Amino acid sequence: MKKFGTIALVSTFLCSCIINFSIIVQAHAQDGKADSARSLHLVTEEYPPLNMSRDGLITGLATELIRLAAHENNIKLKIEMMPWKRAYHIAKNRPTVCIYSTWRTAEREDHFTWIGPLAKDAWSFYAPKDAYIKISSLKDTYRYRVGGIDGWAFTQYLQQNEHPHLDLIAVEDETNARKLQTSRIDLWATGRISGQQIIKDQKISNFEEVFAVREIGLWLACNPQTNPDIIHDLQKTLDKFEQNGTAQKVRATFQFN
N or C: which end of the chain has fewer CB within 10 A? Predict the structure, then answer.
């Protein structure tokens, strides 16, 4: 994914300086300069356009919203990108670690303290248009090879429902898009946000969403031992961003509606 759409996204991000870029730059500069008692370690994965690596920098809609909120509250951030399964394990087991962008499910609810939501998503299946695949229920997908990401809540849901043909080898969502293009899988199980962004960036015209299991929110999920004052301050600031237009400006920066 790092090779697809880089120039377009970075150009869009830079050209948006008139609405919010100067604040975002200040937020980047703030990383690492706050009191150690006001610090968070964030872990994330490639899930464009919310969290993604571009030219060696971790950016994206969710990343910049969190950075801005941290900057406003003098919170030091350390952000690392890694495969989802590793990131989830770290956030679940280490104090002061948060993971984003995280689907909030009943199974995960008690393991984290939640900040957000950052975006609204859906669990979706994509197929090639010329495959003429029609899906009206989850069971209809059971006769197809489905590519997903190990450790994702969507994938775990499919496993809980005993899906017989899951391919969980890929560690990045873009890999499953390529596997669908080359007929190594029949259906691509992904989040609608990531799926649509990858289709756009890779200029794929032959994919369509054939079924959505459910709509679901994406959140910043923090280890329960995280400083409650930090949790409160970030939530309050993100709520303010939704009310004063800052969140909408950041979304526009990444061409996200």
Answer: C
Reported as type and span, the H/E element at residue 92 is helix 84-93
CATH class for the domain made up of 6-120+217-253: alpha beta
- Residue-wise pLDDT tens digits, 26-60: 555 555 454 557 999 999 999 999 999 999 999 99
Determine phi and psi for 205, rounding to 5 degrees: -100, -10
Closest C-alpha to 220, from 50, 53, 95, 89: 50
For 145, the token pair is 């090879």
Q: What is the pLDDT of residues 89-118, one digit of tens each?
A: 999 999 999 999 999 999 999 999 999 999
**Residues in contact with 164: Cβ distance below 8 Å, sequence separation at least 6, in sequence order:** 142
CATH number given to 121-216: 3.40.190.10
> What DSSP string runs through 159-174?
HHTT-S-EE---SSHH
Distance CA 203, CA 246 (A): 30
This prediction's pTM? 0.85
14 C-beta neighbours (distance < 10 Å), count: 10
Q: Is 98 exposed, middle or buried (0-12, 13-18, 19+ CB in 10 A)?
A: buried
